[in-house]
Design goal:
A hairpin with a 2-residue loop joins strand 16 and strand 17. The longest helix has 19 residues. The protein starts with a helix and ends in a 12-residue tail after the last strand. The protein is mainly beta and 327 residues long. It folds into 2 domains: 156 residues, no CATH class; 120 residues, no CATH class. About 22% of the residues have low confidence. The strands form 9 sheets. The chain has a 4-stranded mixed beta sheet with strand order 1-18-19-20, with no helix packed on it. It has a 3-stranded antiparallel beta sheet with strand order 9-10-11, with no helix packed on it. A two-stranded parallel sheet has the order 2-8. It is built from 4 helices and 21 strands.
């Protein structure tokens, strides 16, 4: 009997060893690595490393907010931004949908991103009132929509005019008056239309695959997302076990690359192309098991302003390697 138990334990250990070396294989979604370096327990209360931080929270928020008379403010970087009657920025969430309208931010997410109700909603001057509507949430309450997109506020916006929620997690964006994502010039939907500016040699927006390769004149071949924005890696992360050291406020500057279908790529390594289920609840794309990010400081396709930041952030080669990092 003792010998049988020894054999059984040995077999179990071998199976675990095989699992720990399998990250480079194609496995789909992975939930690996435990708590990130320096991060709090992901099961902690909102705002203490739990789902509050996962959604960019960290500050307790009140309940839903009435829309009232909507307004428009001019932001130096984002152009025209939609606000509620109190002057607070309104946001939209990429995981929601506009056609048909559907709101997916619930529970802890809605504490970080308070729902804006359609109560008293009136379009600002110059905006068609017909763009305003409402959607019934899963709990039966109503939420304001603009051109079909559900509207939210952000718990970390503490004063009218704040736009601290723009770009959080790579999925939250300030809303333009017409419901599109706010962008300089106010006429284009950021990430959906060509942003212009620095010529990357490629068109941005829906013409690009989810991830592809761009020839940068200084860095050579680097990975870009569907908007043509440079993709980065963080040296403090690890590939196996898969861990992230970029959490909380770090994600405001370095939004994660959302999961990409393997067939929606061009020119990149498919080995280790898996989804990382981060301890903070966010799903993140990897190449060769390395978590991927973009940089909030890159405003236009072709920008590489994140290259070398802090000696820890670098563009990514098609094989997932760091580009230009010191040996």
């Amino acid at each position: 009997m003792k010998n049988w138990r020894k054999i059984s334990l040995a077999a179990t250990a071998a199976a675990l060893l095989a699992l720990t070396t399998a990250c480079g294989q194609e496995q789909g979604e992975q939930s690996l690595g435990g708590s990130p370096a320096g991060a709090a327990n992901p099961a902690a209360a909102p705002g203490e490393g739990g789902y509050g931080d996962a959604y960019g929270g960290g500050a307790a928020a009140g309940g839903s907010k009435a829309a009232g008379q909507l307004g428009v403010q001019e932001d130096d970087k984002l152009g025209k931004v939609l606000t509620d009657a109190e002057g607070f920025t309104l946001y939209r969430f990429d995981k929601d949908s506009a056609s048909p309208p559907k709101a997916t931010c619930e529970g802890e997410c809605a504490k970080a991103w308070p729902v804006v109700t359609p109560a008293g909603a009136k379009a600002p001057a110059g905006v068609d009132q017909s763009l305003l509507g409402e959607v019934t949430r899963s709990d039966g309450t109503k939420q304001l929509t603009v051109d079909g997109w559900p509207m939210y506020r952000y718990a970390k916006d503490t004063a009218p005019g704040d736009v601290n929620g723009h770009g959080v997690g790579g999925t939250w964006f300030a809303a333009a008056p017409d419901g599109k994502k706010a962008a300089a010039g106010g006429e284009e939907d950021a990430g959906e239309e060509e942003a212009g500016g620095k010529d990357s040699g490629q068109e941005s927006g829906g013409d690009l695959p989810g991830l592809s390769v761009r020839k940068d004149p200084e860095l050579g071949e680097i990975v870009v997302d569907s908007r043509g924005m440079t993709v980065y890696r963080f040296k403090k992360d690890s590939a196996w076990p898969m861990k992230t050291a970029c959490t909380g406020a770090c994600l405001e500057k370095w939004p994660v690359v959302a999961p990409v279908d393997k067939n929606d790529t061009e020119g990149i390594l498919k080995k280790g192309f898996v989804t990382f289920a981060r301890p903070d609840g966010i799903k993140q794309q990897t190449i060769d098991c390395w978590p991927l990010y973009t940089f909030a400081g890159d405003e236009n396709p072709g920008d590489t302003n994140g290259q070398g930041v802090g000696g820890t952030w670098y563009a990514v080669s098609p094989s997932g390697k760091l580009v230009g990092a010191p040996k």
